Amino acid sequence: MTLDLTISRLGLQGDGIADTADGPVYVPFTLPGEEVRAEPRKAGRAVPIEVVKASPSRAEPPCPHFGSCGGCELQHADPALYGEFKRSIVVEALRRQGIETEVAPLVPCAPETRRRLTLTALRAGTKLLLGFFEAHSDRIVPIGPCPVAEPAIVAALPALEKLSAILLDRKKPLKLLVTRTETGLDVFASDAGKLPDDKRQQAIAHALKSDFARLTVDGEVFAMRRPPIVTFGGLRVTLPPGGFLQAVETAEEAMAKLVITHLAKSKRVADLFSGSGTFALRLAKRAKVYAVEAEAPALAALDKAWREAEGLKPVTTERRDLFRRPIIAKDLKPYDGLVFDPPRAGAEGVAAELGKSNVKRVAAVSCNPQTLARDLKLLLDGGYRLVSVTPIDQFLWSHHVEAVALLEKGG
Fold first, then answer.
1. In the predicted model, is pLDDT for residue 245 greater than 90?
2. Burial category of 156 from C-beta neighbours within 10 Å (exposed 0-12, middle 13-18, buried 19 and up)
3. Which tens digit of pLDDT belongs to each residue from 92-143?
4. What pLDDT shows up at residue 142?
5. How far apart are alpha carbons 128 and 35 in whole angstroms?
6. Contacts of 78 (CB under 8 A, 6+ apart)
7. How far apart are CA 180 and CA 228, in angstroms?
8. How far apart are CA 175 and CA 303, in angstroms?
9. Read out DSSP for 172-207?
10. Which helix (H) or strand (E) covers residue 231, if one does?
11. Residues 9, 12, 16, 19, CA torsion sign
12. Is the separation of the CB atoms in 407 and 366 below 8 Å?
């Protein structure tokens, strides 16, 4: 059985949507205006068999794995359609909260710039597979060339595959978080098998031979040739094992420029969900900073970087779970500027208290437009006004989009 469908629009996950008498049908790798023949699947989904009439916005995917690898969803869309689609995700999220405002064009992301990848390894019979999950599947698509990843990571894939063969538990997949730092690759392995001494020594020897900056296995540093260094606004930070880092350096710089410019006149700034200092260290060039973060290693890295730098204003830190204990409005009185950059769940508790405060300038950074819009509604209800909203591409050819919203209160 096949379906002849006309795609009317793109859904939030990047799938084409065809409206039928039985409801919407989601068809991956299709574009608005296309006529396609598809094979139905469960839950209103279908797999395209043939594009009968192609959109003029259809592009040739640059990756041979596109369509099987679940890492990319939109390589078949040209830059104009792709950019407007990502911008529309932010626009629609705001609209659903009743927020009507101008949204800037998408800040683009170039190919071969992802400095941070999570790879999965498992055994299939006698073969070891290292790559990304297939879309809507637990199967692994082995990758060779990857037009998203930085060349240094792609070049290390053979070495990472050998490392996986040493560490892999036959009963469960192995995760490798691989980060290109200023001093080499930082590899953080999790869910490794129980390693006898000989395997442990093999892993250490292989990491050293491969010239990885550091190898950490299930939280334990196995080998470190050099501390893995990243820079935030020119300030050197030793990345904690498994610590958060924005996936694309140019995207981080675009976010930071918006935040720093907006808070340029602020004298005392609170940085909530500060991580290792992505914004805090940059802000400390002009303002006193109070950085709050739940992860102790991230705060330690921030504090060490601040102490080793010259010419920065004071930076104080607090370890605090802002989901369980949001900072209350009265504790924000000393601050005339604030930035928050929470995980995907957003910062609802923080936004509710911030809305009651008199902090003059706020920068809200988010990787989830839906929770960002929810949090912005709380701020707007508290008397803030939106200055700008800027979507930023960091996960190229996927439906994920970052955004930076800038707000003000008072005269």
1. yes
2. buried
3. 999 999 999 999 999 999 999 999 999 999 988 888 999 998 877 778 988 8
4. 85
5. 39
6. 57, 58, 59
7. 9
8. 29
9. S-EEEEEEEETTEEEEEEESPPPPPHHHHHHHHHHH
10. strand 229-232
11. negative
12. no
Q: What token pair was written down for 53?
A: 């009439």
* Structural tokens at position 308: 């080793």
Coil, strand or helix: which one is 120? strand
Find, among 286, 309, 131, the residue nearest to 236 by Cα. Answer: 309
Distance, in Å, from the CA atom of 150 to the CA atom of 127, rounded to the nearest integer, reads 26
- pLDDT band per the 50, 70, 90 thresholds, residue 198: very high
Q: Which two tokens stand for residue 405?
A: 């919203």
* CA atoms within 13 Å, Cβ hemisphere of 83: 12
* 77, two tokens: 């869309």
- What's the one-letter identity of residue 202? Q
Fill in the amino acid letter for 66: F
The DSSP code sequence of 75-114 is TTB-HHHHHHHHHHHHHHHHHHTT-----PPPBP--TT-B
**What tokens does 137 get?**
């599947």
69 in catalytic set: no
Helix (H, G, I), strand (E, B) or coil at 297: helix
283: left (phi over 0), alpha (psi -120 to 50) or beta: alpha
Q: What is the DSSP letter of 331?
A: G
User: If DSSP codes are grouped into helix, strand and coil, which group holds residue 276?
Assistant: coil
pLDDT at residue 170 tops 80? no
Cα separation values, 60 from 56, 64, 76, Å? 12, 10, 6
Residue with tokens 């809305």: 355
Cα 175 to its chain centre, rounded Å, is 17
Tokens (6 digits) for 191: 């869910």
Closest CA to 232 of 204, 203, 259, 210: 259
Q: How far is Cα 274 from Cα 282, in angstroms, rounded to an integer?
A: 12
Compute the distance between CA of residue 146 and CA of residue 169 in angstroms, rounded to an integer. 26
Taking each helix axis from N to C end, the angle separating 157-167 and 197-209, rounded to the nearest 10 degrees, works out to 170
**Reduced to 3 states, what is the DSSP secondary structure of residue 131?**
strand
For residue 43, the SS3 value is: coil
> Is residue 375 predicted with pLDDT exceeding 80?
yes
